[in-house]
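OP here, attaching both records as promised.
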Amino acid sequence: MKRALLSAYRVRGPAYAVAALALIAVAVTSGIPLGDGARQGRGVIAVIALGVLAVSVLLVFVGPRLIPTRHPATLASPVSGRWLGMNSPATKVPSHGIRLYGQAFAIDLVHEPVDTRRPAFGDGPVMRRARDYPAFGQPVRAMIDGTVVRATDWRRDHRARSGGLALVYMVIEGAVRELGGPGFILGNHVTIRGANGEYATVAHLQRGSLAVTVGATVRAGEQIARCGNSGNSSEPHVHAQLMDRVSPWTAQGLPMTFTGITLDDGPAHVTALPRTGQHMTASVSRE
């Protein structure tokens, strides 16, 4: 029973998406005259879709209690220099408010070098240029040794959502992106399969910045792309996560830490993640 529930929990995302699209189709065609058989079929589809939606929502609350506890994996930092932790699993889990798309233990990293000012929210244009942020174009590195199994960099780098009205727009935009699936949420991204069957993903990469292709073998610390502002992103930053499946549709997020970083501009090297609002500094482990 537990195994069946966990299997159902894995596919709650695509099941919910299909059911939602079915209900949209039913609503759109509700004004179209149909024969008795077609009307009955439409009604059956609506009932089934509502049932699937209900079960999917129920699994959101039941599923996490069934997931086995794992010890955090130790990874290389995907960035070098001084970065601010945001939406960190060191502060709360799930870090991004949801476990969908393997994001339960994901972290966002925003570049804040000591000698360069990062534009403040609400200061200046509502939608700033991505290149106005120090993170834009910064090297992004492999977190693990392994093989590249997914690599995409065709999506554009949009302007930052740097004001209140822009955030309202982002909420609406995000709902539309959800219809396209996780690729439109992650934007340009690279996924690497490790020797233990884990999958490390870095996302929101710069358009045209990939330094690797699918099938390439990489080492932790090797540059694989540059930071951008593609996908569901409010400003240029690096989104990093570890998963147990290659597809974000069915993956569960795995806990992780970064090795050899310092926190709060301190001298001691630790294996950890920065909390939300905490700075970390990382050096390049390998080239």
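Record two, same layout:
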Amino acid sequence: MQKLKIGITGAGGFIGSHLVEHLATEHVETVLISGPHGNVKNYPDAFIADICDFDQLKQHLHYVDIVVHLAGLNSVRNSFTNPAETLKVNTIGTATLLNVCKELSIKKVVMISSAEVYGRPLSNPVSENDILKPLSPYGVSKVAIEQMCFVYHVAHDMNFKVLRPFSVYGPGMSTKSLIKEIYNQVKVQKDIALFNCTSVRDYCFVGDLAVSIKKAMYADFTGFEIYNVASGVGTNSKQLAQLIQSIMKISGGISENPSPDRPRKADVDNLVANIEKVGEELNWKPETSLFDGLKKTIQFFTHE
């Protein structure tokens, strides 16, 4: 039986590296494309390419059956500092990739979007058909990417599985993440200072997300479908900090710090996913509890 050939952009990144690991034992052939900077893992067989370079992408994606698109800038915080760069890399990069797929007759794409497309929802849990009102330049770029995919679906008969991961965490995550910042404070036995103790997020372990991407790849691949990928459970920042303290067996105070990581008026106070659709259609559910996922993440931090 011929192996499925899968092209992965952003293969050396946080999510990409976990996906590559999960595919290592699968009956597939992978074409790994990594960016020139910011890789969590550097694979010797990966091609280094600029996601905005049509010729480079076309050269490496010949004869690919499915593309999983993970490349791009993924920092909400940095998108407020440099919105033009975020929009350029994410939207123009995706448009370039889709044009390559059209030229090479690649009809199947798994697109990784983000829960940031929802902004501040009117109610929680939020479902895939809720109104999109992003409150960050990064979120805006992801809405644009999704719309670009829909255009290519309608105009060029390309098929898409769009995944909207919620707050993804795990080994290899950004050093500027909330979890890493809490870890750094607890490690030196400091009291924890949080921007907003009551802010609620839905945390999704990166290994579980990698499984959802695999299931999307192997699913019946027709049309244009969007899926939330998350735990379906909300956890506020103070509860998150308390869990990390418990795992590290270090106690301390928890308070609010007036220094925000994004403009306060653009903060999202509560964002929790409805995950019924991904369960029903992709037969996926989260397997890793927040406690267990944080334990694995903290173990990674201690050995960095």
